[in-house]
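Troubleshooting entry. Yesterday's outputs looked truncated, so today I'm pasting the complete records for two proteins to confirm everything comes through intact. If either block looks cut off, that's the bug. Protein one:
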Amino acid sequence: MRINGMRYVKELSNRNKIVSESTCDAIYEQQNDAYTIKFVFSGAEDCEINKRRFSIYPDTFAVVNAGTNFCSKIDSINPVNTFSVSFGEHFFSDFHHTLSASHENLLDGKEVKSRPAFTESLYPFTGDMRFNVQHLKNQLDKGLKDEMLINEYMYHCLLNYYKIYDREVVQKLDKLSFIKTKTREEVLKRLTLAKEYISSNYNQNITLENIAEQACLSVNHLLRTFKEAYEISPYQFLMQLRLNRAKRLLQTTSYSLNEIVGLVGFECPSSFIRLFKNTFNITPLKYKKSKLN
């Protein structure tokens, strides 16, 4: 592990752990020994999990199982602010057992008393999950030491993840039209690879062929099943991603409009302005000024 930057680690008596870091240069190579959820509040963290490479941005978070080999790298001009929460074995087991007793279809659909397996992937970092984690980080930055309160935040972090898992995996499986459960699970796994690839390479000139190759699907199969699961096409998903990340850059950075257009993968500023206005009912410059004011 190599780190150049600011870092603090908060380890609780029940083995729950929180790591917050702000750095331009870091490399980690380790076997993860606990269930961990990783967030990025600014910049991007490049990761490799089970030979899959993807990047975590501020609108996504990643889940890593206990026992998984995990590598990550930060190489940035501006500081990248990362935040991770890891759950002690007993804390997580008690939580999972209590919840799975009444929600049998969550995660693998079985009530598992041994270690369940998270789906190691990117998930949307929005809503209650973002509110809870941001609030926890703010409190820790101010010096929060109350373990009972911190554990309550950790509990809600897990609870929010399970809700997101249900929405992003369980419900998506039900939307796929294949009869066999194993077929639906395999197809969704490949669609997840497609989404990871788009999310990590959104500012590059990627094609449907590139995405289909990453997902090990034909282009036609990708188009049909992606629309079934997510109700939008891969191209629409890419455009939404670019526009939302442009919106965040307008809100949080001093980059010029032309710089942001290039950073999020658009080639034509006029096309970007038109799409932005059609999507958010405001021009990019007016949006930026409203946030500055």
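Protein two, checking that the full record survives here as well:
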Amino acid sequence: MTKTTLTTRIRTLTRLTVTNRVSAVYLALVGGAMAVAAAGPLFTTGPDASLIWVWPALFTFPAFGFVAWLGEAGWGGEAPVWFLVGGIVLSALVQSLALGTVWHTLRGRRAHRTRLTTAN
């Protein structure tokens, strides 16, 4: 694999994962939920304060389901915070890539149909 090919593949992955509208909105939603969850302990001191982390995890399902399963298998329900937060971030990126790929595919089909319609 040449350097140019590798650079092209990295750019394509980045474009599909981060720089399209659908992925950007999704990542902003997950990032906002994580920011609110991280700031939660500053404003809430109740015993249920950590439940705010359910929202970022829910926004990243079904990919986070695999991370939760790994945490349960590896640590028996006591997975470290770094593992769960890293799992949320990784799950969000994987799902953002999937959303970007679907968006790109649908836009390509629409553009192809539009070209066929205008050509006739």
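Both blocks look complete. Sanity check on protein two: The chain has one domain: 22-119.
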